[in-house]
Amino acid sequence: MGKGDRRTRRGKIYRSSYGNARPHVDVVTGAAVAKPASAKAATKKAAPRKKA
Fold first, then answer.
1. What is the structure's pLDDT at 32?
2. How far apart are CA 29 and CA 22, in angstroms?
3. DSSP assigned state of 2
4. Cα separation of 12 and 44, whole Å?
5. How far is CA 6 from the centre of its chain?
6. Name one Pfam family in it (predicted).
7. pTM of the prediction?
8. What is the pLDDT of residues 7-38, one digit of tens each?
9. What angle is formed at CA 10 by the lines to CA 19 and CA 8, rounded to 5 degrees?
10. CA 3 to chain centre
11. What is the DSSP string of 5-48?
């Protein structure tokens, strides 16, 4: 545990990453910022054509 541990807050700060141990915080309100929902949730790709 410490700087090299990616699961701890100190490890996240050392590696400049975010996660459950170090959530993003909005500077103005102090509330955690949620990622926006994906707009392409119900999009379905067409099946590739079969060669005859």
1. 59
2. 17
3. -
4. 36
5. 15
6. Thx
7. 0.41
8. 888 888 888 888 888 888 766 666 655 566 55
9. 50
10. 21
11. -TTSHHHHHHHT--SSSS--B-TTT-PBPPPPPPS-SS--PPPP
